[in-house]
Amino acid sequence: MGPWVAVSGTTATNSICELVAIGDPYGQTIQILQNIQTALENAGTSMQAVIRTRMYVTDISKWEEFGRAHGEFFGEIRPASTMVEVSALIHPDMLVEIEADALVIENG
Fold first, then answer.
1. 30 within domain boundaries
2. Neighbour count for residue 52 (Cβ, 10 Å)
3. What distances in angstroms separate CA 89 from CA 9, 71, 78, 92, one per listed residue?
4. Which of 14, 18, 27, 96 has fewest C-beta within 10 Å?
5. Closest by CA position to 100, among listed 40, 27, 20, 57
6. Residue 9 CB neighbour total at 10 angstroms
């Protein structure tokens, strides 16, 4: 493994791949960030090591809801972040998709 972990294409699905929080930008963002947290931990790093996030949203007017959830996970970490409105995601009920880049800090 190298010094980076890239978590891409993360959506608001639960452990059995069901979309959650239909119609809820905040709820979908929370689920996604929990999924990213799990992926990072499985890769040997953590949310504290995230240096950049990209949020693809279908309705930028809901930016405060997406941003509030993002801030709850990254408030003190402050990674570089981008939010971009897209016309659609892979499923019509998906409101947001997030990518995260993190460092892997090797012990030793």
1. yes
2. 13
3. 10, 23, 26, 7
4. 18
5. 40
6. 10
Query: pLDDT per residue over 18-55, tens digit each?
Result: 999 999 999 999 999 999 999 999 999 999 999 999 99
- Kindly tell me the sign of the dihedral angle through the C-alpha atoms of 5, 20, 80, 88: positive
Proportion of the chain above pLDDT 70, given as a percent? 95
Given the DSSP bridges, would you call strands 96-103 and 4-10 parallel, antiparallel or unpaired? antiparallel
The verdict on residue 36 lying in a domain is: yes
Residue 49 belongs to a domain with what CATH number?
A: 3.30.1330.40
Q: How many domains does the chain have?
A: 1
- CB 26: neighbour CB atoms within 10 A? 19
